[in-house]
Write a structure and sequence with these properties.
Length: 650
């Protein structure tokens, strides 16, 4: 609390670690984690692998006193001291390193015991007190067998990085074969893999050493190293600039789109992580040349919007895009933007049936394709310019038709329109060129295309049946079958376009209207319900009142090998529907089930009932009534201080 730093002994409660040296103390949140070391009580000498945690705000050793809770299943060893964690702990050691990564994991690396140098790595999850692996990646090995090194976990986007320097390394078994190190190794904590040092760290490194110390300056993004031992005490100072690896607390991930014309001004959405408000600078560079976006705006923590700068004075190709926010350094990770030579409309072509002189029939989409080309005449291999294409289609009577343009993102664009009538249409294709500052037509534009009526009047053979009120139709293979409203069955052969009125064996059902006729299979049709044909009034007389429905029977018409016949009335069981007409029916092919819904009864009332007729056996059928089922919705629970909703409210 004093303005002057003052040493004092806090005397924490509980059982702390035994006397030792060569251990590690690591701050995580408001707790200090002490692991391993070499020492003991009195003259004892041993290596440790115990874990002790000091709770700074409460001034106590976690687990050794009441009020310091541990996760379920985790205990404190009151005899030997230390927290007993889940998993397999590292073997006893000293001269190791323990680094905090991802704000909750402690990574223990290397060290030595009385007989060997170590190269293993172990991870402690401080939330669960378990020795574990990070994610699904196996814990890495240390770069070499080493001890007395320094290591520091640094927050970076998108993943933490662990920096390791110096130390003493040697053979697994021969302690006399050892040497000092001065290499920097970098661990990517997302993939748990070591980055290659020669390509990561440049400059002249400090001389090899052990037992050095370093600290991280987050503002300058530098690790500051001082002193150490290399057969003599050292007092030199060195700085390692890690900004190229750690970078600012935000990162770029993708560009949408990821390419644009040399003239710039393409609107880009930069996808990334941890963006904040502030002055945003977006730089485009190919390593030799550099341009800055003239406009960049914060959209959200994961999006920045900017315009691509003009690159026309340089060569086309890929450039790197990096971002700086609020004066922080540029992002470490780079994303690629491709500058292409601008589209030249005079070089572009359009082709396809939608431009043919004879375009086909009207009423259907007519399509063609645009191939964009650059100023050298090469096909463009990317899209993103649909808004620049101006396509117009005008009918012979002067009406402008709707035109749709689809960007295929490969330099081509699919264009479609639908002619509405017979006659010709005029098609023009142009490009709104920002370089030439005008709407320039492509090669060959405009075009004219004519369209014919899609309907063709067929020349029929045979006697066309007379139109009859209430006649119904269904298909049977390649035949159209008509019946009802008058005498006879009428059949149109779809191949020969020939009408026939075949002789039909068996007893025909009574003539009717308002029935349904449903095809059962390649040979059978099923009729149900209906109404007698109403009498035609004479003169000015009002039509007589007749029942709205008269039938509830089922009849089957069959055509077997060219022979037509009415089957005897089937034996129909089950929950038979009421007499009805003007209902609907359809077939479920599996099991030959006919679904009948609604209709009008003989009293004129309308129905909303549903029946299913099992018609697999034409001689014996069965009805099933499907009752209407009302699904009750439970009222939502009442909010605190409120009332439950009533049934009407629900």
């Amino acid at each position: 609390e004093s303005e002057v730093p003052t040493w004092h002994d806090p005397q924490p409660q509980g059982m702390g670690p035994s006397p030792r040296s060569y251990h590690t103390s690591t701050l995580c949140g408001e707790k200090v984690y002490i692991f391993g070391g070499y020492g003991g009580q009195g003259m004892r000498r041993q290596n440790f692998n115990d874990l002790h945690v000091l709770d700074i705000p409460n001034n106590l050793w976690v687990g050794s006193v009441e009020g310091s809770e541990l996760p379920e299943g985790i205990t404190f060893d009151a005899k030997e001291g230390g927290i007993v964690c889940e998993g397999t702990p590292p073997c006893p050691r000293g001269n190791h390193s323990t680094s905090l990564v991802e704000r909750k994991f402690l990574l223990v690396m290397g060290g030595r015991d009385t007989g060997r140098y170590l190269d293993d790595c172990h991870v402690l999850d401080t939330e669960t007190f378990s020795w574990t692996q990070v994610r699904t990646h196996a814990n890495p090995m240390a770069p070499v067998r080493l001890c007395s090194h320094v290591a520091e976990g640094l927050e970076s986007v998108p993943s933490y990085k662990l920096f390791c320097f110096g130390g003493q390394t040697g053979n697994d078994k021969v302690r006399t074969e050892w040497s000092f190190r001065n290499k920097v190794d970098v661990l990517d904590c997302a993939s748990m893999s070591w980055l290659s040092s020669p390509g990561v760290v440049t400059g002249t490194p400090p001389p090899p050493r052990e037992d050095t110390a370093w600290a991280f300056d987050p503002k300058a993004a530098k690790l500051v190293l001082f002193g150490g031992w290399a057969n003599d005490w050292l007092d030199d100072l060195h700085m390692l600039d890690v900004s190229g690896i750690v970078g600012p607390p935000y990162a770029v991930q993708a560009l949408i789109p990821n390419e644009g014309p040399m003239t710039g001004k393409t609107e880009i959405i930069i996808k990334g992580l941890e963006f904040t408000k502030g002055k945003i600078i977006v730089k485009f560079t190919d390593g030799r040349n550099e341009e800055t976006s003239e406009k960049a705006d914060f959209v959200s923590p994961t999006e920045i919007k900017c315009l691509s700068p003009d690159w026309s004075k340089y060569n086309p190709g890929e450039v790197d895009v990096r971002v700086s926010i609020g004066g922080e350094g540029l992002t470490v990770n780079k994303i690629k933007w491709n500058y292409y030579v601008n589209t030249k409309p005079q070089k572009c072509v359009a082709y396809g049936p939608g431009l043919f002189e004879k375009g086909g029939v009207w009423g259907f989409p007519s399509v063609f394709k645009i191939q964009a080309k650059d100023t050298s005449g090469r096909n463009r291999s990317s899209g993103g310019e649909a808004q620049y294409w101006v396509c117009k289609v005008t009918s012979s009577d002067g009406e402008s038709l709707d035109v749709k343009i689809l960007d295929n993102a490969d330099g081509t664009y699919d264009v479609s329109y639908i002619p509405k009538s017979s006659g010709s249409v005029d098609i023009s294709v142009a490009y709104d060129d920002p370089v030439q500052n005008g709407v320039i037509p492509v090669r060959g534009s405009p075009w004219s295309s004519s369209f014919e009526n899609p309907w063709t009047k067929c020349k029929m053979q045979g006697t066309v049946p007379k139109v009859q009120l209430g006649m119904q139709a269904t298909t049977l293979m390649k035949r159209l079958v008509l019946w009802g409203g008058g005498p006879g069955v009428h059949v149109l052969d779809g191949d020969q376009l020939k009408w026939e009125t075949p002789e039909v064996e068996g007893t025909a059902p009574e003539d009717r209207v308002g029935f349904t006729m449903t095809t059962l299979d390649n040979e059978k049709m099923l009729l149900f319900g209906g109404q007698k044909p109403p009498p035609i009034p004479e003169g000015d007389e009002d039509p007589p009142e007749v029942p709205a429905a008269d039938f509830d029977d089922v009849n089957v018409l069959v055509c077997e090998k060219g022979v037509w016949k009415w089957l005897p009335s089937p034996d129909v069981q089950g929950d038979k529907p009421a007499i009805k007409a003007r209902h609907s029916a359809c077939l479920i092919p599996v099991g030959k089930k006919v679904i009948v819904f609604g209709g009008v009864g003989n009293d004129g009332n309308r129905y909303d009932d549903l029946h299913v007729l099992s018609a697999q056996n034409p001689a014996k059928m069965e009805w099933l009534h499907v009752p209407n089922k009302v699904v009750e919705v439970e009222a939502p629970p009442a909010e605190e201080g409120g009332e439950a909703a009533t049934g009407d409210d629900a």
